[in-house]
Amino acid sequence: MSPSASKPAGFTLVELLVVIAIIGVLVALLLPAVQSAREAARRSECQNKLKQLALGMHNHHDTFRVLPAGATFRGGDVMPNTLGYAWAIPLLPFIEQAPLYDQYRSVIDDVDLFACCNWPVQARNTIIPAFICPSQPTSADFIKAGDAATGRGMAGNYLACGGNGLTASESVAGTITDGHGGLDRTNGIFQANKGKGFQDIVDGTSNTLMLAEALVNDDDGDHRGRYYNAHGGDCLFTTQERPNSTVGDRIQLGCRPGTTEFWQQLTPCSPVGGGTETMISARSLHPGGVNAALADGSVRFIPETLDVLTYSALGTAMGGETVGSF
Predict the structure, then answer these.
(1) Is residue 73 over pLDDT 60?
(2) Helices (H) and strands (E) in the chain, counts
């Protein structure tokens, strides 16, 4: 018998197990790095989307000398479906969505059709990628009551800043009162039925938040983030609580924290009834904070550990506060 004939071919079981163990260790070491790289890419894409929206806001201001109103609705209406639209709709022509905006013109221009139920169904149920953060889970319901005759249409991940207090309340004079016509004096850049100009941002455009992220959960009845029928401050966020706060949002109507524990932890809320105390906080799935656009068009990552007074000051347009570093 030759020496080569007595040597076993291939790997032994021990050698194979060692190789498998080494591969397993390498995968365990590399997987977090891969996941981190993917999230970094999603966060960067989200920032780019906010940058485009901020540029759209500036182009809107260049054209009309004002920013879009936070929400627009017919004054004095008492019908709950006559509730108008959010800042995102007049922004559409400035983010390369003019054909979609044109589908709304007949409704916007006709006071008798100005209601949620009359929004073109196909248009209102169109998911616009510019308003969706790539870190948002796909299990979210982006079309609220989309199959109903009174469907609420698309909800998105980007909200405009209404200030550092309530964005709607019957008890606070001048805020959005359930969308039924009250003048709005929220202390941020965006308010109801009136667009503000950059000259109104006396705190400075580099010290005032314009847009930030929010989460859309999986419940069809949750109203946060709606761009159509946007009453009661649903399309605005406030800096009253830090980003990703565990304090539940206060919602006039349609408070649905989600159908699973996953969503209930991410999008907590407390129903407060129609016409009272809406407060929606900025939220995201980016570890440690949220992306936000300032009025000067720059985009920053706002940590959830930011000093509460500094964050609160960033929400006002003319509060006169001293803004710390952020």
Answers:
(1) yes
(2) 6, 11
